[in-house]
Amino acid sequence: MQQHRWQFVRAGGVDQVVIRTGADIAHLAQLDQKLWVALACPTRGVEFDAATLDLIDEDGDGRIRAPELLQACQWAVAHVRDPEVLASTSDVLQLDSIQTDAENGAAMLAEAQRILALAGQDGATSLSLAQVQQRLAELHAMPFNGDGILSLQALQEQPELRALAQRIMDAYGSELGRDEQPGLARPQVEQFFADVQALIDWLAQGPQQLCGLPDAQQAQAAAQALTAVQAKVDDFFARCQLAAFDASAQQPLSPSEEGYASLGQQALTVDDAAIAALPLARIDPQAVLPLNGGFNPAWVAAMEALRQHAIVPLLGAQEQLTVAQWQQLKAQLVPCQTWLAQRPTTPVADMPLEEAQALLASDAQAQLLALIERDSAEQEHSAQAKNLEKLIRLQRDLLPLLNNFVSFSSFYSRSGAMFQAGTLYLDGRSCELTVDVQDPGAHAALAGLAKTYLAYCECRRGSEVRHIVAAFTAGDVDFLFVGRKGIFYDRQGRDWDAVITTLIENPTSVGQAFFSPYKKFLRMVEEQVAKRAASKDASVTEGMLTKAASLAEGKVSAEAAAPRKTDVGTVAAIGVALGSISTVVVAVLSKVLELGPWIPLAILGVVLAISGPSMLIAWLKLRERSLGPILDASGWAINGRMKINLPLGRSLSQLAQVPPNAQRSLYDPYAAPSVMPWVWALVVLVLLAALSWSQGWLNRWLPEGWQPAAAEVVQEESAADAQAPAAAAEAAPAEAGN
Fold first, then answer.
1. Cα dist. 326→230, 306, 321 in Å?
2. Rounded distance, CA 478 to CA 513, Å?
3. Which of 5, 45, 71, 455 has the fewest CB atoms within 10 Å, i.e. the most exposed one?
4. How do beta strands 126-128 and 653-655 pair?
C-alpha cells in the first residue's frame, strides 16, 4: 500500500499533523497513533454535536476512542465515491456522491430519493440533514414507524383488539417504541397465546383425573381442600399415635399453660401464626379426629372445606375421622393432587376455560402479529434513513472532530476547540481557556500538574448550575480570591453568574514573579501592622471602658486620677533605639558609598538576590505549563504535552485595553495626591550627593573637615581616642600585679 504523504506543523511543543483533505481522512489509519494529540475524549461536557458523537461511540460508554474514530472514518469513506466530500463540512449530501457499490449503498440512495419524493422534491439531486431528520421525526410519530413495536395508537379503530393488547401488556410487560410510548412486541404476543394454550392443555386433563368425583371442578376443589390441611392433619394423627404409644407423652405434646399465658399477654386474632402452630385438635390416644367441632380456631374454615369437598363426597357424612379413613382419603385424591400441582403458573392461569378456548379459536393472535409485521416492514426504511443521517453528519463534522482529536489545530489556530466551554470575564481580563468540570475536587487533584494558575468557578443561570475551570495565563493575580465574582459566556452566547470556589496558584509570567517577593513582604508588613493596631485598639478600648466604669462607680484613686509623669527610662530607651537604627543606616550607607561607580551593580545584585529565586521558579514552571493535565482530568486521554507558552498564554487571557481610536483624558478629578514622585526624586538627589561627596567631586566647595579624606582622619583619631582608655585599663592591673 502506498504511504500517504502527511504534513506536520509545530504547535504546543509537539509536531501536529495537518488534516485538511479527504485523502487525509481516508489514510488516517496509516498515521502512527503515537503522533495523535489525543487518544480518547468524552461525548459530554464538550462543545460538539452530541448526536454525532453518539453515532461514533459504538459501545455507548460515553467515550470516543481512537479505534471508534478510525471505524467512523472508514465507514464514511466506504460510502462516498470521492473522500474529498468529507472535507466539505457541509450538511447537504449530493446524491451522486453516494457509493452504491458499498454495503447498503444502493438502499441508502433509494431511501434518499424516497425521502425527497415524499417531501414533494422528486428529482432533486441533493439531500440535507434537516430533511432526513424531519423524515425520521415523522416516521417516529407514525403508528407504524419501523421499530417492530405495536402501539395502542395503531389500534384506535379496533377496540376489542386494543383491549386485548392492553391486557397482554399489563400481564407480560411492554416495550418502549421510538415515539417513547409503551407498545406490544412479538415476544409478548407469542408468550401470551402459548400460555393460553398450555392452560387449555392442562384443563383438558381434568376429566381424566376425577378421583371418584362427578366432575373435574369438584375433583379440583377436593384436591385443593386436602392439600391445604394435609400437613396439619398428619401432624395431629402423629401426635395421637405417639400418645397412644406412651401416655406420658400426651401432656408434652399438648399446649402448656405457660404457652397460653404468653399468648394471653398480646392481642390475638384467629389468623395469628402462634395460634395456627398449635395442634389441630385435642390430642386423643384413640387417634380419632372429631369432625363436628373442637378444631383449632385458625383451621376451622380449612377443615370445613375438607369435610364439604372431600370427606362427604368420598366417605359420606362422618362425625369423626380415623387414621385409616384419612389414609384412604389421601390415596384416593393423589391423582387429583398431582394434576393440580401441574397447573401452569402463568399470568393467565386463572383464565376460565371458555374464555381461553374462545381466544384461541379467534384470529386475534394472527391480527396482532400481522400488525407487528406491518410495523417491522418500515424498519428497513428507518435503518437506511439513519444511515443517511450518519453519512451527512460525518460529512459535516468529521473533519472538525479530527482537528480537535488527532490534532489540536482548532485550539492553536484560535478557532474554538471543542473542549473550550466559553469565555470568563473577571478581574479586568477575559479567559478563553475554560473547561467544563463535573467534580471540581477530583479534577483539581490532577489538573494541578498543569503548572497553570487555575480558578474553579460555580456558574449559575436561573436554576441551572455548572462548574468550570478557567486558566489565567497572563497578568497579575493579586486580586483573585475565593468568592470573587464575574460573568461567564458559554459558546452559545448565554451569560452565567460565576464565582470563584477554588484556586490553584502558579506563576503567570516571569515579570509577575519578579515583584512577587516585594508584594509578599508588603502584605506581611501590612498584616502585622494591622494586627498590632487592632491589638492596641482593643487594649485602649478596654482600658477606657474600665476607667469609665470606675469613674461611674466613684472608685478612682488619687494615684490613678493624677496625670502620669513621663518615664525617663522609657525616653532613654527610645533614644538608644533610634541611635542604634541611625548608626546601622549610616554604616550601610557608607559601605554602599564606598563602592563608588559600582553602586548600580550592587543595587542590581541585591534586587536579583531577592527576586532571582522567585523568577527562576516561575521560569521553570512556565516551561512546563501545559494543557494535558487539565483535559486528562476532564476525561480526555491526551497523548502530547500541549505546552502553553507565554505568547499563547497572553492570547488566552487578554487584559483590558482602551481602543486605539478612543479619546482619552488622563485628568482624574478624584485622583488621590501622590507623593511618590517627590520621594523618589529626593532619594535620587541624596544618592547623587552622597556619590559626589565620596568621590571628592565637591571638595572645592566644602571645608577641609567635611572632605572625604579629612573625614577619614577624624574617624581614625576618634577610634584611637576610644582605644586609649581601654588600653590604659588593661595596663593598670598588670602594674598592680608587679
1. 10, 11, 7
2. 11
3. 5
4. unpaired
Rounded to whole angstroms, the Cα distance separating 487 from 430 reads 10
CB of 602 within 8 A of CB of 594?
Answer: no
pTM summary value: 0.64
- The CA distance from 313 to 212, in Å, is 9
Residue 289 bridge partners (DSSP): 321
Sheet of 434-437: strands edge to edge? 434-437, 464-472, 453-461, 495-504, 485-490, 422-426, 429-431, 653-655
> CB of 453 within 8 A of CB of 434?
no
The DSSP H or E segment spanning 303 is helix 300-306
38-42, strands of its sheet edge to edge: 63-65, 38-42, 637-638
Neighbours of 702 (CB within 10 A): 13
**CB count in 10 Å sphere of residue 421:** 27
Could you tell me which residue, 465 or 531, shows the higher pLDDT? 465
Contacts for 711 with CB less than 8 Å, ≥ 6 apart = 705
Q: Nearest 5°: CA angle at 605, between 599 and 607?
A: 105
One-letter amino acid at 430 equals: S
Q: What is the pLDDT of residue 402?
A: 96
The answer to whether the CB of 178 falls within 8 A of the CB of 358 is no
Query: Would you state the cell numbers that stand for residue 227, as one nine-digit string?
Result: 392439600
Rounded Cα–Cα distance for residues 10 and 642 (Å):
11
Compute how many other C-beta atoms are within 10 angstroms of the C-beta atom of residue 276. Answer: 15
What is d(CA 420, CA 643) in angstroms, rounded to the nearest whole number? 16
Among 457, 520, 530, 524, which Cα is nearest to 488's?
457
Torsion (CA) 396, 398, 400, 402 in degrees, nearest 10: -170
Per-residue pLDDT reduced to its tens digit, 214-267: 777 788 788 888 888 889 888 988 888 888 888 888 888 788 777 778 877 788
Query: Cα–Cα distance between 277 and 284 in angstroms, integer?
Result: 18
- List own/partner pairs for 300-307 with CB under 8 A and 24 or more apart: 300/270, 302/225, 302/228, 302/229, 302/232, 303/229, 305/225, 305/228, 306/225, 306/226, 306/228, 306/229, 306/233
**Residue 470 pLDDT grade (very low, low, confident, very high; cuts 50, 70, 90):** very high
Residue linked to cell 386475534: 364
Residue pointed to by grid coordinates 362427604: 312
Answer with the residue of higher pLDDT: 495 or 708.
495
Residue 391's nearest CA partner among 6, 20, 59, 52 is 52
Could you tell me how far CA 534 lies from the centroid of its own chain?
45
C-alpha cell at 73: 472514518
Find where cell 538576590 sits: 609
Asked whether the beta carbons of 627 and 638 are under 8 A apart, the reply is yes
Q: Is the pLDDT of residue 81 over 50?
A: yes
Task: For residues 241 and 325, give the distance between their C-alpha atoms in angstroms, rounded to a whole number.
Answer: 15
Find the length of the chain: 738
Residue with the larger pLDDT of the pair 547 and 506: 506
- pLDDT tens digit string along 611-654? 778 888 878 788 888 899 999 999 999 987 788 888 888 888 88
Q: How far apart are the first and last CA of the chain?
A: 113
DSSP 8-class letter at 294: -
Quick one: pLDDT at residue 711?
A: 46
Amino acid at 327: Q
**Three cell numbers, residue 350:** 386463572
671, burial (CB in 10 Å: exposed 0-12, middle 13-18, buried 19+)? exposed
